[in-house]
Design a protein that fits this description.
Order of helices and strands: HHEEHEEHHEEEH
Distance between the termini: 35 Å
Strand order of the largest sheet: 4-6-5
Largest sheet: 3 strands, antiparallel
Oligomer: single chain
Number of domains: 2
Radius of gyration: 30 Å
Amino acid sequence: MLEFAARIAGAETVMSQLTSLTPQIKGRVKNAIQNLTTDLLRHVKEDKLSGQVLKNQTGTLRRSINQKITEMDGAVIGSVGTNLSYARAHEFGVDMTMQVTVREHMRRVKSRDTSFVLRAFNGDKMRNRTMDTLGTTVVHSFQRNQHIKLPERSFLRSAMDDMRPEIRQQLVQAFRGMF
C-alpha cells in the first residue's frame, strides 16, 4: 500500500477567498439560471407549442407554461412547467381504459318517424330514454368504459434536451473569471 501526505501552503487564505466569493458565485449562478429558464420558457412556447409538437387549439396549455426560481440549502433551482392535468398525458403519453360518466342531455331526433327511433333503442338502452312529442329524446346519465390512447408528444423534456449545450455553456461562463 502506498501512502502519502500533502500540505497546502496558504490553505486558510484559499478558504477565506472562497468564502468571500460565495455570494458573488451564487449571484452569477442565479442570474444564469434566471436567463436559462426564461430562454427555456420561450423555446417551449414558440418552438414546441405553436404547432411543431402540439397543435395550438385554444392556447391554454401555452399560456399555462411558467417558470420558477427556488433557492434552498445553497442551491439555486430553476424550473419550467405547467399545472394543467392533461399536460402530463401529452408529455409522457397514455394508454388506459377508464370509466367515464356521460351527463344527461337532450338529443334531437333527425327523423320525425318516432316509431323508427323507438325501434332503434332496444333493451337496456330503451330504459335510459324517454320520447317527447317534439322529436327530441332525453338521454339519461350513464357510465361507459372509454379507452384513451395518446402518443408521447414531449414538449418540456425535448425543449430541455434541445437547450442542453446552451445550459452547460452559460453555467460554465458564470464561473469563468471568478478564480
